[in-house]
C-alpha cells in the first residue's frame, strides 16, 4: 500500500511539473531554446560527463577489493542509470546485486556504499558552498568550505567505533586511514566538478547563466536526488531543486531557471542511458 502511494505521488509530481512548465514557460518557448543548442558544446558536455563516470569508477577501488577498472565502470554505469530511472532510491539495490555476484561480503559492500555516499554528500555540499561563496565574492569562506567539510566524516568514524562487528572493524582499519580518505574526498570533488561542467556546457548560450551560477544550481538539483520521493526519473523534483536555487538565491528569471533545469535534466537522463547501454553491450561482448 505504501509503495503504491509513493508511486502515485511520483506520478503526481511529474504531471504537475509538466503542467506548470507548459503553463508558465510554454513548450514552444522551450523548443526555441533547443534550436540554440550547439552540437560541439553537447559533445564537450558528454565528454566531461563521461570523465566524471571514470573518476567515480576509480574511486570505488579505494573502498572495494575490486581493482579491475572495467568491472568498476560497469557497476558505476548500471547503478547510476537505475538510480536515475527508478524511484525511492531503489536503484541502489543494483549496486549490492552486482557486487554480490563478485563474491564481495555483504558487510564490505555496505561499508563501501555508506562511505562513498557519505563523501558524495560531503563533496556536493562543499561544491555548493564553494560556488556560492565565490559568487558573493567571499574567497576565504569558499576555500575553507573545501578544506574543512571533509573532516565531518570523522563524526561517522566516531559512531562506527561503537560497532563491534568484526568485518566493520576490519574495514575501518583497512580503509579509514587519512591518505585514503583524502583521496576519496578529492575524487568525489573531481566527480562533481566534471559533472557540473557538463551541465554548464549543455545549456543554450542565450540563457546567459554563467558557470558559477550553473554550479550552484547543479548542486541544488543533485541535492534532490537524496529525497525518498520524487518524480518519475526525477522529473519535477530535480528541476525544482535546480531552478529553485537559481530563483531564490541568484534572482534568475523563473522561466529561464526552469528551462535551464530542464536542459540539464534531459542531458542527465540521455547521457546516463547511453553510457549504461554501451557498458552493458561491452560486457556482453
Structural features, described:
The protein has about 280 residues and is mainly α. It has one domain (about 1-285). Helices cover about 75% and strands about 0% of the residues. It contains 13 helices and no strands. The chain has helices at about 1-25, 25-35, 40-60, 70-85, 95-100, 105-135, 140-150, 155-160, 165-175, 180-200, 210-225, 235-250, 255-285. α3 (about 40-60) packs across α4, α5 (about 95-100) packs across α6 and α6 packs across α10 (about 180-200). It is globular. The N and C termini lie far apart (about 40 Å).
What is the overall shape? globular
Q: Uncertain spans, ≥5 residues at pLDDT below 50?
A: none
Tally of separate domains: 1
Number of strands: 0
- Counting helices, strands and paired strands, the structural category is mainly alpha
Fraction of residues in β-strands: under 5%
How many angstroms does the end-to-end distance come to? 41 Å
Specify the helix fraction band. over 70%
Q: Averaging pLDDT over every residue, what do you get?
A: 84
**Oligomeric description of these chains:** single chain
Series of secondary-structure elements, N-terminal to C-terminal: HHHHHHHHHHHHH
Biggest sheet overview? none
Number of DSSP helical runs? 13
Radius of gyration using CA atoms only: 19 Å
Amino acid at each position: 500500500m505504501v509503495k503504491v502511494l509513493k508511486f502515485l505521488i511520483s506520478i503526481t509530481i511529474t504531471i504537475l511539473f509538466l503542467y506548470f512548465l507548459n503553463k508558465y514557460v510554454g513548450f514552444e518557448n522551450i523548443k526555441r531554446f533547443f534550436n540554440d543548442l550547439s552540437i560541439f558544446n553537447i559533445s564537450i558536455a558528454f565528454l566531461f560527463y563521461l570523465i566524471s563516470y571514470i573518476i567515480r569508477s576509480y574511486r570505488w577501488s579505494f573502498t572495494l577489493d575490486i581493482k579491475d577498472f572495467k568491472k568498476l565502470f560497469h557497476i558505476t554505469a548500471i547503478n547510476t542509470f537505475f538510480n536515475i530511472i527508478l524511484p525511492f532510491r531503489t536503484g541502489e539495490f543494483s549496486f549490492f546485486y552486482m557486487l554480490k555476484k563478485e563474491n564481495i561480503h555483504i558487510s564490505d559492500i555496505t561499508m563501501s556504499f555508506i562511505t562513498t555516499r557519505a563523501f558524495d554528500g560531503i563533496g556536493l555540499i562543499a561544491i555548493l558552498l564553494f560556488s556560492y561563496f565565490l559568487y558573493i565574492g567571499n574567497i576565504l569562506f569558499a576555500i575553507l568550505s573545501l578544506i574543512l567539510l571533509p573532516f565531518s566524516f570523522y563524526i561517522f568514524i566516531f559512531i562506527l567505533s561503537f560497532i563491534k562487528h568484526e568485518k566493520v572493524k576490519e574495514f575501518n582499519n583497512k580503509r579509514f586511514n587519512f591518505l585514503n580518505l583524502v583521496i576519496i574526498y578529492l575524487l568525489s570533488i573531481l566527480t562533481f566538478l566534471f559533472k557540473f561542467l557538463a551541465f554548464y556546457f549543455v545549456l543554450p548560450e542565450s540563457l546567459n547563466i554563467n558557470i558559477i551560477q550553473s554550479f550552484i544550481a547543479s548542486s541544488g538539483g543533485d541535492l534532490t536526488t537524496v529525497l525518498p520521493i520524487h518524480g518519475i526519473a526525477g522529473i519535477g523534483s530535480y528541476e525544482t531543486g535546480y531552478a529553485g536555487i537559481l530563483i531564490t538565491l541568484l534572482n534568475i528569471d523563473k522561466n529561464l531557471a526552469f528551462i535551464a533545469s530542464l536542459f540539464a535534466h534531459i542531458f542527465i537522463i540521455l547521457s546516463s542511458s547511453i553510457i549504461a547501454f554501451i557498458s552493458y553491450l561491452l560486457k556482453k561482448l
